[in-house]
C-alpha cells in the first residue's frame, strides 16, 4: 500500500535527483529512502526513476507521480491545519522554516516571546534557502516560512510583510568609504561586492539595493554565511552590504570593521509565507507580531549599546 512517507521520498528524489541529498532532506538514511522508493514502485507497478552512475533520471511516470504526490501532500497538510485550528488556539505542532540570513538572528529573541504566548505550541525549526522553503510549503512539509521579499512566489503561497530590513556598508576600517557618516549610491557605482554564494536571496537583494547603479558580485570569493562574510571583510578581501537585522543581532561585534549608513538603499522586506488555503492564518499573524516585537527589541538594544 502506498504511504505518505513514500510520497515524501519520491518528491525529494524528484527535487534533488540525488539519493544522498533526498535522504538528507527526508532525515533518513539513503538505504531507508531507496527501500521505500522500491516499495513504492512495486506497489504502483511502474518504474519511477532510472538509477545510473551518472545520477538519477525520473521516468515520465515518475515525474507525473511526483507532481501528483505534491498535491496529495499539500492536501494532507491542509487537513492537519484544519484539525489543529478546531482545537485550542496555538496548540499542536508547527513546522517553521527560515532563511539563513534572518532565522539565526531573530529566532533566539523571538522564541521566548512565542513560547510565552503559546505554551502548548510545539515549534519545529528548519533553516533552508528560499527555494527550498517555498517547495516545503507547497508540498506540505512546512506550515510557515520566514523569507525576504521581493521574491517570485507561486500563486498558492501568500506572503505577509513584517518589516523592512535595510543595509550597512561594511568595510575594513582603512577603506576610503569608512570614515563617513553615510554613503550614497554614487559612491558605490561600479564597485564589486563580497556576497553570499548563489542560492541565497540576499545576493540578489544586495545587488538591487541601488537599482539605478551598476554593482556586481566579486567573483573571486563567495561566503556560505553572514559571519563568514564579515570575517572576509575584516581580512581586507572586499566590502559588502550587511542587513540591519544582522547588525542589530551583533553580527559585527568583535570585528575590526566599519559600518556606514546607506540611507538611499532599497531594503529587503522580511515576510511570513504560507499556503493560501491554510486555516491557521490568525495564528501565523500572531507569530508575526512576536517576530516584529523581537526585532524592535534588538534594534533598541543595539542603539543603546551604540550611544
The biggest sheet, with number of strands, parallel, antiparallel or mixed sense and barrel status, is: 5 strands, mixed
Q: Considering the protein shown, what is the CATH homologous superfamily of the largest domain? A: Periplasmic binding protein-like II
- Which sequence of SSEs, written as H and E, runs from N to C? HHHEEHEHEHEEEEHEHEHEEH
Mean pLDDT: 88
Percent of residues in helices comes to 40-55%
Structure description:
The longest helix is centred in the N-terminal third of the chain and has 26 residues, at 60-85. Strand 3 (92-98), helix 5 (103-117) and strand 4 (121-127) form a beta-alpha-beta unit. The mean pLDDT is 88. This protein has a 5-stranded mixed sheet, sandwiched between helices. Strands 10-7-11 form a 3-stranded antiparallel sheet. The chain has a two-stranded antiparallel ribbon with strand order 1-2. With 307 residues, it is α/β, with parallel strands linked by helices. Helix 1 crosses helix 3. Helix content is 44%, strand content 21%. It has 3 domains: 4-73, Winged helix-like DNA-binding domain superfamily/Winged helix DNA-binding domain (Arc Repressor Mutant, subunit A, Orthogonal Bundle); 87-163 and 269-306, Periplasmic binding protein-like II (D-Maltodextrin-Binding Protein, domain 2, 3-Layer(aba) Sandwich), CATH 3.40.190.10; 167-266, Periplasmic binding protein-like II (D-Maltodextrin-Binding Protein, domain 2).
Amino acid at each position: 500500500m502506498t504511504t505518505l512517507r513514500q510520497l515524501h521520498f519520491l518528491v525529494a528524489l524528484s527535487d534533488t535527483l540525488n539519493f544522498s541529498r533526498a535522504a538528507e532532506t527526508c532525515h533518513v538514511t539513503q538505504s531507508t529512502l531507496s527501500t521505500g522508493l522500491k516499495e513504492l514502485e512495486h506497489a504502483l507497478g511502474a518504474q519511477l526513476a532510472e538509477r545510473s552512475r551518472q545520477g538519477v533520471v525520473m521516468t515520465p511516470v515518475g515525474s507525473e507521480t511526483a507532481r501528483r504526490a505534491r498535491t496529495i501532500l499539500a492536501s494532507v497538510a491542509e487537513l492537519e491545519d484544519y484539525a489543529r485550528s478546531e482545537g485550542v488556539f496555538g496548540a499542536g505542532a508547527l513546522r517553521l522554516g527560515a532563511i539563513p540570513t534572518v532565522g539565526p538572528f531573530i529566532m533566539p529573541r523571538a522564541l521566548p516571546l512565542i513560547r510565552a504566548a503559546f505554551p502548548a505550541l510545539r515549534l519545529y525549526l528548519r533553516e533552508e534557502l528560499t527555494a527550498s522553503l517555498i517547495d516545503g510549503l507547497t508540498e506540505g512539509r512546512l506550515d510557515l516560512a520566514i523569507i525576504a521579499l521581493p521574491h517570485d512566489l507561486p500563486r498558492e503561497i501568500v506572503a505577509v510583510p513584517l518589516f523592512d530590513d535595510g543595509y550597512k556598508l561594511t568595510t575594513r576600517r582603512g577603506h576610503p568609504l569608512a570614515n563617513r557618516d553615510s554613503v550614497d549610491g554614487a559612491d558605490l557605482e561600479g564597485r564589486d561586492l563580497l556576497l553570499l554564494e548563489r542560492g541565497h536571496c540576499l545576493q540578489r537583494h544586495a545587488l538591487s539595493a541601488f537599482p539605478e547603479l551598476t554593482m556586481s558580485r566579486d567573483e573571486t570569493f563567495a561566503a556560505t554565511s553572514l559571519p563568514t562574510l564579515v570575517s572576509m571583510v575584516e581580512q581586507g578581501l572586499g566590502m559588502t552590504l550587511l542587513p540591519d537585522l544582522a547588525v542589530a543581532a551583533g553580527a559585527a561585534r568583535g570585528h575590526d570593521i566599519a559600518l556606514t549608513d546607506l540611507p538611499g538603499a532599497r531594503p529587503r522586506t522580511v515576510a511570513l509565507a504560507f499556503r493560501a488555503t491554510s486555516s491557521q492564518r490568525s495564528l501565523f499573524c500572531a507569530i508575526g507580531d512576536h517576530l516584529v516585537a523581537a526585532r524592535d527589541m534588538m534594534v533598541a538594544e543595539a542603539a543603546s549599546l551604540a550611544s
